[in-house]
Amino acid sequence: MRLHRLTVTAFGPFGGREEVDFDALASGGLFLLAGPTGAGKTSVLDAVCFALYGSVPGSRGRARSLRSDHALAGQLTEVELELTLGGRRLCILRRPEQHRPKRRGEGSTPEKAQTLLSEWSTELDEWRPRSGSHQEIGAELQQLIGMSRDQFCQVVLLPQGEFANFLHADAQKRRELLGRLFDTGRFGAVEAWLTEHRQRCEKEAQSVQADIAARVERLSEAAGEAPEGVLGPDEALAWAAELRERAALRQEVAEVRHALAAERRAAADERLRATQELFDRQQRHRRALETRDALLAEQPAQQEREQRLARAERAATVTPLLRRLAEAEREAERAAAARGRALSALPVELHARDVQAADLRAEEREALGRTGELRALLQAEQRQAEIVRETQQLERRSADAEEERSEAEAWLADAWPRERQAAQRDVEAARDAATGRDALAERLRAAAQRLEAGQRRDGLATRVATGERAVAGLRERRSEAREAWLELKQRRIEGMAAELAARLQAGEPCAVCGATEHPRPAEAAPDQVTPEAERTAEAAYRTAEQQFHEAEHQLARLVADAAAAQALADSRATAELSQEAESLRREHADAERAEAAGLAAARQLERLEREHEQRAAALSSARETLAAAEEALSRLTAEREQLDVRLTEARAGAASVAARIAALDARAALLGQAAEAVTAASVAADAASAARAVAEEECTAVGFPSAAEAQAAALGAPEAEALRAAVTRHGEGLARARAEAASPELVAAAALPEAEPGTDRAAAAATEAALFDAHSALESATHRVAQLARLSDGLAEDVTHLRPFAERLATATELSQLVAGTSRSNELRMSLENYVLAARLEQVAASAGLRLAAMSGGRYTLEHTDARSRNNARSGLGLQVLDAWTGRYRDTSTLSGGESFFASLALALGLADVVTDEAGGMPLDTLFVDEGFGSLDADALEEVMSVLDSLRERDRAVGIVSHVSELRDRIPNQLHVRKGRAGSKLSQAR
User: Fold this and answer.
1) CB under 8 Å to 447, separation ≥6 — which residues?
2) Which chain positions lie within coiled-coil regions (predicted)?
3) Taking burial as the number of CB atoms within 10 A of a residue's CB, which of 401, 546, 614, 712 is the most buried?
4) What is the pLDDT of residues 780-825, one digit of tens each?
5) Count of CB atoms within 10 A of residue 723's CB?
């Protein structure tokens, strides 16, 4: 990345338009941004950052507005930066959200933020716009730079003060800065995931243990007996084996009883079967005789069904022809109806009844031919509408130009000389009136802070007294609530027997002694304490205790705040502080009014000069506009008159040519539809006549006098099938009834005495009930054995499953504690995220150590250390300095001011190298070093300059931001920032 040109307007301390040519400054590789403190050197870097990211670094963007206080009212704040990124030359223009004066009337109106990105085209030799979207431009620049704003501010705009703090900071503060620069949040996410994984493993193990307890409870329910005490996994397996043995013995007894009952049931069933078979034969013979007689009585109806079926079968041979005839007649009716609708839709002059399709087609062709002629005039009609619009626009433009010309001539003749003379007098009168405002502002700020502290001290004294009374009252309330809770708890314990007795149920075991009989249950006293009452009292006590602790903590904060306010107010009375602040405020206001009067007058004079130029230009432009409008109006009037004659004839009374074309198109469409309908009706009528002739001929051939009789004899498929089935069913039923009535077996059974199976059925029912009871007992015993076996197997599986879950939980716990730095095996108590940051810090320290050795003449080297921190705190982000003169390591806090500058500058440059590599290796051809050179002696400055000179390799430019005078003599290319009452100014020198 290389900067070429920066232009700022009404930005920060710069009231006007300032331009920085970085190509000229960086021609020697090293250049200086010089100027007094507060002149705006750092604001140049703020403008670069604002152009790239839309905001300025750190707290500067939050502390004040980007707009200059010295800017004229009508001048917009903007920053324009030309630079090369990734081999592309770009130009970025940004304007923040701001207010500008209204163009008409008084007051101001908000101006939205604006961002424009352009790219230089070598083929066209000009700037080509790329985008005007904040989001698109931000995303494209972020991708090209490869760094976030925080990384850019730490790597390209090297802030020495922050790195001096980083050098002496503790591990937590270093972790925060490195975490922002290297984005190691994903490693923290790994730590959180491992913690969640340990919790999941713990829940899984607890779930298996809960399954084991549930299995034991279900075994107890299945066996009808409970275990003695709480069982471990192995004890539960042994107890389950005993239950299975006892259930198997009960199953064997039930099997013997079931076998005896089954034998008795089989004998009774055999006797019932023989009696039932004889009864069934006798009944079948009786039903066969009845069925035969009933079918013989239906014989005449059977003959009629057979004749009807024969006629239907003959009619079925001509059914397709009859169906085709019906379809042809229906189609002829539909076509005739369609012909009538189409003819009725025609114009009145074409409603003749004997109209022919050929006549309709001729009328259709005539309408279509006329439509084609009219379509050629559609463009002429559009041009007529355009002429009307152009004429109206020219008339409005002419009126606006006339108004603008009159206004400009009046202002230039009257207002301009009078207002300019008044503004010049005000500038000369207020030039030397405002002095000493900065000193008064500092004194006023200190007085305001003391007054605010005094007022806060007085207010806090009242709040402290109120808080002490509140704490005393809450302490007493807490004691009373605790005594009330303990008293209720004691009374409930004393009446616990009655509370347990209230839960007893007849026949159910007692929860205390296990007895199922309850001869003398305890009775509740009239004032028996319920569990709900005890819980309510305990909740009241907990609430009172929490309120007391919160009030006590708040009182402590108030006391500390009151002490701090007393110290800041210098123990002076509030009235005295207020009088002092008011006096300084009046002096400062007088100074500000004097300075503001001069600045306002200067801005007014500049505004008048610009307005004079604008008014003169507007007058010339208005005169040119009036002449051009008159000429264009004359030309449009002549063209419009010619078009009116042609279009009036073409419309023939219609609203427009398009409407006339639409009417002719509709007439042609109706004529075409009517011609098709007439043709279709004629064809359908001929088809119906032909179909009737064929149908009549075929019906006569199969024995029907006419098609109508054949249609009446025909039956539908379902009706014919039902008739045929009835004929068949009657014949087959009569044959079966005759055969069964003559069966020798049934005739022999009918000759025997009448069978009565009721007695044998009652005996069989009794044996069946006995067998059912035996079967139920056997099934219950078998089910219990199977259930106990299944539950025992499940219990064994749960005990087996518990072991891997326990092992997994142990592994997950150890791994989670290891990456979190709480495991005993993690001797350095270093978390995973700290480990990654330590590796990055080690790279930074290695790169910084080489530069520190060069700046210190080989004496100091900066190194990373993993040594344990004090008080057993976590380690991994330590820094130490190796002193080659003594051969010992020194803590960074022992370095002097100049040595700290060496170390912090080396640390900043090393971090720039590492972050650049981390961001994808984007070459940084322009760097800035901000302040810190004032603490160096001549020799140290020489060493630092040698290191900075080495940064210029590979065509890199380094800018130094400083007010140190020695640097002005050493660096030829300089950008000077000068501070004045109308804002700071920039000038370049070589």
Assistant:
1) 577, 580, 581, 584
2) 534-646
3) 401
4) 888 888 887 887 888 787 777 777 777 777 777 777 777 766 666 6
5) 16
